[in-house]
Design brief:
Helix content: 55-70%
Structural class: mainly alpha
Strand content: under 5%
Number of strands: 3
Order of helices and strands: HHHHHHHHHEEEHHHHHHHHHHHH
Length: 519
Amino acid sequence: MAARTAYDLLKERFAQISHLGHAASILNVDAQVAMAAGSAADRTGQVIAIASASHMLITAPDVAQWLDAAEKDKASLPADDQRNLELMRRNWVHVNALSKELAEEVARIESEGEHLHVEHKKNGDWVKMRDWYKHSFDTARAIGTAKMAKLGVATPYEALLDSFSPGLTSARIDAEFAKLQAHLPAIIREAVARQQALPTPLPLKSYPVEQQVELCRTLALAMGFDTNRGVISVIDGHPSCNGSPDDIRFTLGCTPENFLEAVYSTIHEAGHGIYDQNRPAAWRYQPAGEHLGMNVHESQSRIMEVQACHTPAFFRFLEQAARKAFNEPTEPSLSAANLERLINTAQPSFIRTEADEVTYAVHVMLRYRIEKAMVNGDMTIDELPKAWNDGLKDMLGITPPHAGQGHMQDVHWPCGLVGYFPAYTLGDMGAAQLYAAATKARPEITAELEKGNFTPLRTWLNDNVHSKGSLLPSDEMFRQATGEALNADYLLNHLSQRYLGRPFVAAAAAAPDNKHKFG
């Protein structure tokens, strides 16, 4: 038997780290789905122990030695292995920048923050959450500061951003978001005005959760989610998708009054799950087999949720599926036209996860602006609530009634996921760009959705995104799939086409008075 090389040893070590990460992910889902409230402290100890073990495995001296040795022989490796080795070094740099204690605190914040968020969000109890938010942001700042020099970036926030959306800088995000801020206000105003001339859509009837779950399962299967390697659960909390490629767990919430909330959280999370299930099996448990970043991951949820499943063809499929699930053959509110009116409506609202696709980016850009200021020391915790309320008033013309519908609505900040938020609008940009390329290459994609046939779209995504894993840098993946690097132009064109009925033209979209106002 040939002696194992340094690279062989690295692959073995990174596979161990991958398994531990997947185990922690599944434990976090279990805490949402099945764990008793009194077990929270025990679960926090478990995820901290896993984080500590993972940190020790990658920071051990032998890993640095193996990396140095493997990089000396890098030229002898196949191209994909060279990419895997580069990603190993990147991961090593990120983790080694943190002390064992800081790595453990990250795990504790994520675990405990979830429970605190669920407990206090509903009533918007900022007094009880203020100190926790401060600790979460202080820890995020410490992480970013620790990583700055190692990554060669100028600010703590830039370092955090690299953790979630590798290769995308604040300067580049600012440039693309500036396009959206320049042109979205006019699109929102005209879309709202156009809708006012249309009949008011019929309200939905209430349907039992059990029937909603049946409908959601039908949709997930049609999309291509493999329930032989994945589980769908209903929770009273923020929907999510976690686990490992062969053990995906996604959750959704159901309210009897509005089954469309369950439908679209299912489509969103199933989009994440399908991406994970179809990443390259040959690179399973290696850095090259991981996703390209949360901006790409969000593009895979949003391409399903808003690009494919806001189309007239999909609403015709949804009508038939809903009528069957609810045993409602003649209910007028379930007509495809009514469902489309209910969903494709531009209207400023308080909750990001319930926002229409036209105003959605406003929520994300405001979060981005605030979290960047918090981490870089340009805003204090006591300035945060007012910054949110003022920003939403300035951008959308509305003010939330309490913190639970304002700055406390999302789980990310109390869980320490700071630097994540730009990924949502970057994901919308990517989804629009990828869908345009997919439908150009496979013109039958949209029509097939009327039959509930997602195979043409899923096959194109498998070939151009899923199967690539992290074997290509993000920009190169977009260039190969669409011919261009990621940009906001396709999202603006998509929104103009869907809500204004015409292609986007920058000169026509901009107005002299809309530099800041979104409302």
